[in-house]
Design brief:
The complex is a heterodimer of chains A (about 400) and B (about 150).
Chain A: E1 5-12, H1 32-47, E2 56-60, H2 71-74, H3 76-84, E3 91-94, H4 100-113, E4 119-127, H5 144-152, H6 156-171, H7 175-185, H8 203-208, E5 211-213, E6 216-217, E7 226-235, H9 236-242, E8 247-255, E9 270-272, H10 281-294, E10 301-305, H11 311-322, H12 328-334, H13 352-356, H14 363-376, E11 390-397, E12 401-409
Parallel strand pairs in A: 2-3, 2-4, 10-11
Antiparallel strand pairs in A: 1-7, 1-8, 4-7, 5-6, 8-12, 11-12
Chain B: E1 12-15, E2 31-35, E3 41-42, E4 61-65, E5 69-78, E6 94-101, E7 105-111, E8 122-132, E9 136-145
Parallel strand pairs in B: 1-9, 7-9
Antiparallel strand pairs in B: 2-3, 2-4, 5-6, 5-8, 6-7, 8-9
Classes of the chains: A alpha/beta (about 400), B mainly beta (about 150).
The structure holds zinc ion.
Chain lengths: ~400, ~150
Amino acid sequence: MERDVAIIGVGMTPWGRYPDPKQPAAFPDLTMPELAVEALKKAIKDAGISWRQVEAMVSGVYLWVSQQAGIHGTLSGTAIANLMGYTGIPIVSVANACATGQSILREAVLAVASGECDIAVAVAADKSAFGFFRPQSTDGRADIDYMRFVMCGETNPAYWAMECRRRMYEAGTTEEDLALVKVVTSKTAPYNPYARYRRTFTLEEVLKSPMVCDPLRLYEICATSDGAAAVVVAEYEKAKKICKKPVYINAVTVGTPTFGDPTVRLTYLSSNKRSGVPNLSESRNAVRKVYKMAGIGPDKVDVIELPDNSSWHYFAYLDCILNLDPGEPEKMLRKGETDPVSGKIPVCPSAGLGAFGEAVVAQGLAQVCELVWQLRGEAGERQVRKEIKYALAQTYGYAGNNAACILSKGW
Amino acid sequence: MAGEPSAKKEKKRVPLVEGLFTWPSNQPALIASRCKKCGAVAFPKAAYCPNPDCEKDPQNMEVIQLSRRGKLWSWTIQFYSPPPPFKMEPFKPYAIGMVDLPEGVRVLGMLTTTENIKCDMEVELTVGKLYEDGENEYITWMWKPVEK
Ligand SMILES: [Zn+2]
């Protein structure tokens, strides 16, 4: 990149439901842009700057616009600026499904790296649909996603379950392995004030939870949540003057699929298989690129935040991030090597999507918030035991979107 | 679901979304496009070849019927009813699978049964009912295990 960039401030809201009648003080009745403001003001305060000092903003596009937020969900950036107070800066709104969070971090970084400005912010808020996600149109001719949904009844967990079953068939992943993912990732959940489900789970409890999409059980798939997160970035030399612990961005990128990938992605009805092309290529492409940008390999990564939308994702994303064969992540999990705090490579010290529930477009930034706190040594009971040099986060968006970043200490 | 004798009067069986499989037919087949240059297949039909190295010329794409038999790559059972616009009446847990066809394409679809399903088993295309109203039965394509 032309100029080096660092993170100078992060902020997020607790994940849950806004409003939550049971906890009206913690979860008031906020619209999507209002929720974004809550995260944005925290990130700006964390950076020790004012809104006037922000020179560019990139906003995640709220995915369920037709159900709740309308045009202000699509043009979310200017809707948020309207609440913050217009300052005339460049603002862009970006939709990249669940990969949106780190996709907008990339845009903010590029704005600074290019020299367009010195301080930029990425912000995303989401009030995800209740229960199973669904198509957003009613047109069987124009929308393949609609066709897929009404003709095949494929929910997101159904897709994950099919991938999971094949993995069990080929790599010998067991039902107990799937349940163990929840047991291990939930270990830090009681210690994360931003998590929605702040409790641990026992193996027995997970294995007894109802089957949703065979072989995936209720406690092995993530819920859908509301939440917002924001990240402020600055040109590195300036960042060092603004704050004591700037977090250096070694790499951030977006991955899309390779033609010939056999994966039948969510929202689609078929795939073209070409020999030699791996599955989940959008994820592999993003990861390969961030390693190249950072000049490191998987052996250098000290902590990982990955998209554990289901227990299958946990294993599949360890394959992608650490370049492992299916079956190897299962062994690492069983040996405790991926323990979120004490592992050889701690995975999801935040407690992951299992404890948060997915607030689609904000999720990638929530991962970045966690890694910033981990690098600064501010994660409290969740703080990983080992010294962190490189931290990696990856988010997986449906329909062929992925994003990843590598962060390190900039002080 | 598939194979059930229709109650009382014969209703007209109509695909819920038209143009995805040949109908009416005793041997329904999925309708796809294939690139004459590189053989890439798109289902549902597409105007352009998905191969990044192929010219985006609709003339290169021919309409084909996909093989009716394939190998079940993987499957699941959906235990809870998805939200609208999905509609199955009466709802009962159903299986969904991904099927590898000889044309080099992997295709999604419901299965006719939730019993004795195995990865890599041979399946054949048929149709099954999602729901009905006063006049019609609304159908989709379904994969049926081939009896050995
Ligand atoms: Zn072609």
